[in-house]
Amino acid sequence: MHESLKKENLIVKLSFELAVETSSFCDLLNEKKKWSLADQIFRSALSIGANVKEAQNAESKNDFIHKMKIAVKEAEELEYYFEVCIAVANLPDCKELHNKTQTVCKVLNKIIATSKTN
C-alpha cells in the first residue's frame, strides 16, 4: 500500500493495521486448531480494508458511501467474532483487537454520516 495514502487517510491506516494485527491473531487461532473461526475472522478483517481501499477510487459519492457501508458491516461482523472469542475459554486474548475494531466502526460511521450530509 502506498505509504503516503496510509499517512494521509486515517481510515485507510486503521483498517490496514487492523487487518495485519488480526492476521497474527488468526495464526494463534490456527495453532489451537480453530481453523473455521480463524478463516471467518481473517476474511472479515481483510474485507474491511479492501472495501475502504476500493472506496478511495469510487465512481461517485453514492458509490463511496456504499463501499464504506459494506466496510462497516464487515467491521461489525468482526466485532461480533471478537466478542465470541472473548466469551470462549481457552482462546487467545483479543480485547485489544476488539477495541480497535470498535474504533474502526466509529470512524466508518462518522465518515458515512458526514458523506451523506455533504
Would you give the CATH topology?
Answer: de novo design (two linked rop proteins)
Count helical runs: 5
The averaged pLDDT comes out at 94
* SS strand fraction: under 5%
Please give the domain count: 1
CATH hierarchy, class: Mainly Alpha
Rg of Cα set? 15 Å
CATH superfamily: 23S rRNA-intervening sequence
Give an overview in words.
With 118 residues, the chain is mostly helical. Helices cover 84% and strands 0% of the residues. The protein contains five helices and no strands. The chain has helices at 3-8, 10-31, 35-55, 61-87, 95-117. The chain starts with a helix and ends with a helix. The relative contact order is 0.15. The mean pLDDT is 94.
SSE order and pairing:
Blueprint (H helix, E strand, L loop, with lengths): L2 H6 L1 H22 L3 H21 L5 H27 L7 H23 L1
Which structural traits does this protein have?
de novo design (two linked rop proteins); 118 residues; mainly alpha; elongated
Brief summary:
By secondary structure, the protein is an all-alpha fold. It has helices spanning 3-8, 10-31, 35-55, 61-87, 95-117. It starts with a helix and ends with a helix.
